[in-house]
Each structure stands twice: as C-alpha cells, then as structure tokens.
Amino acid sequence: MSSPVEWGYPEAEQGVLGAIMLASLEGDTGLVADIVGQMNSGDFYHDDHAALFDAIGDCLSRDMPVDPVTVGSMQRYLPSGEDTLAYGATLCRIPSVANVMTYVQQIKLWAVARQVVGIGRMLESSIAQGLPLTEAMGAAQQSMADLRDLQRGGKAGYKRMSEIVPLVLNTMDDVLNDKAPPKLSTGLADLDKLIGFLRPKSMVVIAGRPGSGKTMLGLQIVNHVAVRGRGVGLIISLEMGDEELTVRTIASLGGIDLRRMEEVKVLEREEWDRIGIAASKIKDAELYLNDTPGLTVSAIRADARKLQRECGLDILMVDYLGLVGTDGKSQNRADAVAKVSIAMKNLSKELGVPVLVLAQLNRNSTSRPGKKPQASDLRDSGQIEQDADAVILVHHDPESEAGEQGVTELILDKGRQAPTGSCLVQRQGQFARFVNFAGREPTQEEVEQSRPFAGRAKWRKDHETF
Predict the structure, then answer these.
(1) Which residues of 185-214 are buried (b: 16+ CB within 10 A; e: fewer)?
(2) Distance from C-alpha of 197 to C-alpha of 180, rounded to nearest angstrom
(3) Which of 197, 198, 266, 453 has the fewest beta carbons under 10 Å from its own?
(4) How far apart are CA 104 and CA 110, in angstroms?
(5) How many Å apart are CA 244 and CA 252, to the nearest integer?
(6) Hey, CA dihedral for 145, 147, 149, 152, is it positive or negative?
(7) Does a cis peptide bond (omega within 30 degrees of 0) precede residue 320?
C-alpha cells in the first residue's frame, strides 16, 4: 500500500510477540491463551511478525512451550530472511507483560484501518473499471460487514446465533435486490453448476494424476477470474516457470496451438494477430505470478497479503501442495503435508478469498474399473481431504475412446455446499484449455459396450475464448 503512513504499529506487534514468549516462560498459560485467542496472523502488518505468530501457534498446537528456541524449531527463517531464534530472543527483552492487552487493541485497530482503506481502494478500482455502481457498492458493503470480526475487541470468540441471523437475512436481501457482489465463475458452465461457483474463504483442491490437466484447469480458472471477471489473481507456481505459464495463457486466450508457438518463424499473420489480442488481454488483467521454488507457507502468505494490501485479491492458486516447503526438521512426509494443508485452509479464511490448491493422486485409481479417482486417493495425507471445502478430481484416461477424443470428467467427490457429482468438459490440449462439452451423456448400454462417445465428442460454439 503506497502511502506515507506506516500502516501498522511495529513496536506494539513486537511487544505482543515478546509478551507471549515471556508469559510462556513464566508459566502464565492463561495469558498466552487470552492473547492468541483474540488474534490471528492477519492482524499483523509486518510479514515477519505474522509468520512468527503462526510459528507460535504451531508450538501451542503441539503442546510445546513457546520460547525463541521452540519457535525457531518450527520455522528457522522469517520471510525477510532473518533468523527466527535470534529475532525471538530480541523480542523477549521487554520489561514486563503488564500492558500487552493495550498492545493487542492497538494492533487490531490498525488492522481495521487497513481494511477500511483497502475497501475504499477496491471501490475506486471497481468504478474505474466500469463495474456498475450498484455492484461495486454491494461488494464494498459486504466487505464492510466482514469487519465485524475484526472489531470484536476483547470479546469472547463465541456468540449467539441470533446475532448472525440479521447478517444472513441481509445477504439474502442483497441477492434478491441484485446488490450482492458478483459470484466468481470458473469459466466452465457445467463446472459452475456442479460446485455452485467459487466461494470466499474456501479451499478448493484440484487433484489428478500427472498429465491429467489439473494445472491446466487451475490456471484457466484464475485466468478467467482475472481476464473476464476483472478480478485480481495470484498464481504460486512451484512446478512450472513463469514464462511457461504465460505461454500457456496466451495459447488459451488466443486459441493458438502450443506447438506452433514454439515454431515462431512459421506462424501466419492470423496467428500473430491472435497472439497480440491475447497479450493485450493479459496486459489489462490484474494477474500475478510467483515461480520461486520451495516457497514455504509463510512466504506464500506474505506474498498474498502484500498483493492484497496493494492491489486487492480475488483468487489464489498454489501449484502444487506437495512442493510447498516446510520449516520443521523432524516431520515425516505425512505430517509435513498435513501442516501445509491446514495452513492453506487457514489462509483462505484469513484472506477471505477462494484458494485453489493443486494436489497429486496416488496410483490406486489406475487399478479400478474405469480408473476413476476418489478423494481418498490424494497423495501423502488424508488431512487434505478433511480440510478441503471442495475436492475436484480431473479424470482423463487417454487410453479410453472418450479420452482419445479429449473428453475429461471433472468429479466433485467432496463439497461442503454442493452435492457430489460430475460433469464433462472437452480437453483442448493444443490450446492448453478446457471448453464446455456439448455432447450428450452416454447411455448405460453404450458404456457397457465400451463405446460411450463414438463420433459424438464436440464442444459448444463459445469455445474461442473463456
């Protein structure tokens, strides 16, 4: 956020973190619980402090005392590169914990101030982009309503359900009167119907076997939100480089064959025109990439929080969960992945946006009739399935007749807000995209004859761009 004002109170943040560790050393577990129960990492403006608070939470979740050594064992380095143990030792030099609750209130007030400024900038940007005023105001009003959580102050975390009823009714009234913020679409009509659009504060897992198209689907969704939906998207790619992702986006938006883009000397004028149009769309879009290898959750959080402060954020994609770095030294693979999964779920709630988390599947599905995957096939940890609000499995069997014709099944095997089911999409691998499938579902007789899509794979006419 470019402003002469320092949008935080670093001394108060240092005082709170130091007080937590000092209270733990003195055996005052009640005070530690009171402080941690009132705050979350999103309250901290400085990314090092947010990461340190998360490391403190990791210690408490493992019933470990909180001090510079234990916190440093959870996360060796802070996002700035500073040694966690050394910085934690510095914070423990505060004289007492007497004024810590005052510091807590100061931090939370600054958090509210940042949110209010961010909402104002979001409203200004929406109007500048030509969004109808009623929609822009609706989105701003919804964001202001979300500030209630930040303004609880020292109140207990529990509340009567009757307090929530007016919020629910107001939301329903906004929808009825077309004042609600626009829903985020995936760009694929049948997938939107299947999952009920992308919801804020949700963790959506997109999983598949290698080569199934999970990255292609995730990238296409984020591109649609940023290009067609005029939102802000951030892609954390721990597998593909930023140039490869950009080439794929150009191919998808412009309908350019990826193989032709590698042979630029033979491209025709019409293809160059398509590339120019796609590049222009990307130039106008709020679409951001980070392909730094081995990023930890704290580094991803810092990047996302910074972008959200400066430009806003509507959707985040992480490709893929198994490559996210961890700071713990003694964790086995399952524990490490489970920790990352929990952190991703918490990050979706903290940022208030849908987080697309890509994940690998094990080989269990390949031995089943039809080779259809299940959410239980998620590799490394069952925690992923537990944390996810929705699990979308990309099923493409290139050895089947349907697979040969590009037909891909998207299976919703878990959905908190939608019943399980599936839909078909048409894979256009040469353009690095999926398009809406317009063929009919196979009959049971055709499935039994192993010829479910003979001569009937096609797509809708709206496939040129998504």
Answers:
(1) bbbbebbbebbeebbbbbbbbbbbbeebbb
(2) 14
(3) 266
(4) 10
(5) 12
(6) negative
(7) yes
Task: Name the amino acid, one letter, at 53.
Answer: F
Residue that is written with structure tokens 């480089």 in the block: 241
The CA distance from 222 to 100, in Å, is 41
Closest CA to 254 of 222, 218, 288, 282: 282
CATH topology of domain 1-182: DNAb Helicase; Chain A (1.10.860)
Answer yes or no: are the C-beta atoms of 460 and 436 closer than 8 Å.
Answer: yes
The string of pLDDT tens digits covering residues 305-325 is: 888 878 889 999 998 888 888
Q: Are the C-beta atoms of residues 25 and 67 closer than 8 Å to each other? A: yes
From the centroid of its chain, how far is CA 48?
21
Token pair 């914070």: residue:
91
Rounded to 5 degrees, what angle do the CA atoms 276, 282, 288 make? Answer: 150
Domain edges within the chain = 1-182, 189-463
Q: Which of 96, 88, 6 is nearest to 53 (CA)?
A: 88
Task: State the pLDDT at residue 316.
Answer: 95
Query: Which residue is associated with the tokens 């207990």?
Result: 156
The helix (H) or strand (E) run that includes residue 407 is: strand 407-415
- Please report, for residues 257, 259, 295, 428, the alpha-carbon distance to residue 275 in angstroms, rounded to integers and kept in the order given: 11, 14, 31, 17
Instruction: Provide the CA 345 distance to its chain's centre, in angstroms.
Output: 8
Is the Cβ–Cβ distance between 195 and 419 less than 8 Å?
no
Q: Based on the number of CB atoms within 10 Å of its own CB, is 4 exposed (0-12), middle (13-18) or buried (19 or more)?
A: exposed
Residue 409 in 3-state DSSP?
Answer: strand
Over residues 97-140, the pLDDT tens digits come to 888 888 888 888 888 787 787 778 777 777 887 777 776 776 66
271 exposure class (CB count in 10 Å sphere: 0-12, 13-18, 19+): middle
DSSP 423: E
**CB-based contact 356:235 (threshold 8 Å):** no
CATH topology of domain 189-463: Rossmann fold (3.40.50)
Q: How many residues does the chain have?
A: 466
Structure tokens of 16? 């709170």
Categorise residue 25: left if φ over 0, alpha if ψ from -120 to 50, beta otherwise.
Answer: alpha
Of all residues in the chain, what percent carry a pLDDT higher than 70?
85
Task: Give the span between the Cα atoms of 81 and 77, in whole angstroms.
Answer: 6
